[in-house]
C-alpha cells in the first residue's frame, strides 16, 4: 500500500516549473520523473514514487512498456486523476519497445500501454530504440537477439507511419524518437509526414552530446535527457570500467557545496538551465530534484564550468542491440556521421 497524498497542495507549485514549447505549440514541463527501475526497483515502489512525485508537484512522467511497471503506474495515475488533477495538466510519455516495430504491432502496443496506464491518450509516444532488437529484462551485456538487425531506414519509416497514424487516431498527441543519431534523424525529418517533437537521448555533464543537442534544437525538436545524474543504479550490463560518475566530479561537488545541495541536484539544475528536459529517476530524492529547478539558479560562471566537464562518456552503450558477432558498441552510434552499414 502506498501512502495517501494531498495532490491539491503540492510542495512545489507546478506553475512555477519551467516549460518547453514543442513545434505544435503545446508545452511540457522541463523536468519529468523517470520510471525505469533498472531491473532492481520493484514496480510497486516506482508506482509509489509516481504518486509521491505528483504530490510534490511533478506533472511529467516518462514511462515505457519495457519497464514492466505500466500497470502499477496506471493505478497511480488513476488515483492522481481522481484526486482532482486534470488530465490536461499531466504530461505522460510512453515508448514502443523494440520487438513491436512490426506494422501490425505498433497500434496494438500503444493501446496496451494506454490500457495499462489507464489513459485515453498519451502526450508523447516514442520509438524507444531505432533497432528492432529485443532483449529480455535482466539480461547481461552479451545477450543478442538471434534475428538482430541494423538500422534500416525503410523499415523504421514503416514503423513511423504507424506512429503517425496514432496521432491521426487521437491516441497520442505527439510522437518522437529516442537513441537516434544525426544521420538517422536527417532521414526521418526528410521523410516524416508528422515530424518528431522530441528526441530522448543520454545527457549529463560527462556526456553533453553538443552536436546532436544543437541539431535537434535547430530542427524544432526538444531534447529530453535521460540518465541526467549518470544513472548510479543502472543495470550491470550498462557498466564498463571506463565509465565516469558526474556526481563525483570535483567541479560538480564544489558547486553542490556552494549551493548546499546534493551533486545530483546540480546535474538537474544544469540540465534545465541548459535547455534540455531531464527525467531523473528517483524513489527517495524526487522532491529535492524538483525543488532544485525552481530555486537558486546556477550562475553563468557555474554553467560555463559544467559545460567544460564534457568527457564524451556514454554510459548506455546499447551492446545488447548489436547485430553482428564481434561488433563494438560504437557501431550503434554512427560516430563518423554516416549510418553504420549492415
Ligand atoms: N530512452 C531511453 O532509452 C532511456 C534509457 C535510459 C533511461 N531512460 C529514462 O530516463 C530515466 C532516468 O535515467 P536513469 O534512471 O537511468 O538514471 P538517473 O536518473 O541519472 O539516476 C537515477 C538514480 O539517481 C538517484 N538519485 C536521483 N536523484 C538523486 C538525488 N537528488 N540525490 C541522490 N541520488 C539521486 C536515484 O536514487 P533514488 O531512487 O534512491 O532516489 C537513482 O538511483 C529512466 O528512469 C527512464 O525513464 C530512458
Describe how the helices and strands are arranged.
Layout: E1 19-21, E2 27-29, E3 33-34, H1 43-56, E4 60-62, H2 70-82, E5 91-96, H3 106-117, E6 124-127, H4 153-168, E7 175-178, H5 182-191, E8 198-202, H6 210-218, E9 222-226, H7 250-259, H8 263-274, E10 277-278, H9 286-294, H10 300-307
Parallel strand pairs: 3-4, 4-5, 5-6, 6-7, 7-8, 8-9, 9-10
Antiparallel strand pairs: 1-2
Helix pairs in contact: 1-2, 2-3, 7-8, 8-9
**Which ions, cofactors or small ligands are bound in this entry?**
NADP nicotinamide-adenine-dinucleotide phosphate
Overall SS class: alpha/beta
Q: Beta-sheet strand percentage?
A: 5-15%
- Report strand order across the widest sheet: 3-4-5-6-7-8-9-10
Quantity of strands, as a count: 10
Indicate the percent of residues in helices: 25-40%
Shape: globular
Q: H/E series, N to C? A: EEEHEHEHEHEHEHEHHEHH
Average pLDDT for all residues: 95
Radius of gyration: 19 Å
Low-confidence stretches: none
> Helical stretch count?
10
Main sheet specs: 8 strands, parallel
Termini separation: 49 Å
